[in-house]
Amino acid sequence: MSNYSGCPPLDVQFDVNSSVSNTIYIDFGDGLSGSNSNSVTNTYYNKGTFYPTLTITDSNNCQLSIYLDTVIVGGGDIDFEPSSEIYKAND
């Protein structure tokens, strides 16, 4: 995964190295999913924290599911008050 935090719309690319005979399914955590691709990009349009999961099924129908890196979109509201004072180094 790359680019897993930022402002919406946030494109996150999921890359999976898996055998050709395996079935790949990614639940992006935002109500969307992708399958049967070693590289897929999901665009997160809404602010929030998302928990994508990867499920790989082999030719014997054995499954392995893991959580991927958390995706944080929007980062929350910034609350600050600017100062009217200017500071100089070495003063």
| CATH homologous superfamily title | Immunoglobulins
Helix % is: under 10%
Low-confidence stretches: none
Percent of residues in beta strands?
35-45%
Q: Write down the secondary-structure element order.
A: EEEEEEEEE
CATH topology call: Immunoglobulin-like
What report would you give on this structure?
- The protein has about 90 residues and is mainly beta.
- It has a single domain (about 5-75), classed as Sandwich (Immunoglobulin-like), CATH 2.60.40.10.
- The chain is built from no helices and 9 strands.
- The chain has strands at about 5, 10-15, 25, 35, 40-45, 50, 55, 65, 70-75.
- It has a 4-stranded antiparallel sheet with strand order 4-3-7-8, with no helix packed on it.
- The protein starts with a strand and ends in an 18-residue tail after the last strand.
Tag the structure with descriptive keywords.
mainly beta, 3-stranded mixed sheet, 91 residues, Immunoglobulin-like, 4-stranded antiparallel sheet
Topology at a glance:
Layout: E1 5-6, E2 10-15, E3 23-27, E4 33-35, E5 39-44, E6 48-50, E7 53-57, E8 63-67, E9 71-73
Parallel strand pairs: 1-9
Antiparallel strand pairs: 2-5, 3-4, 3-7, 6-9, 7-8
Task: Kindly summarize this structure in a few lines.
The protein is mostly beta strands and 91 residues long.
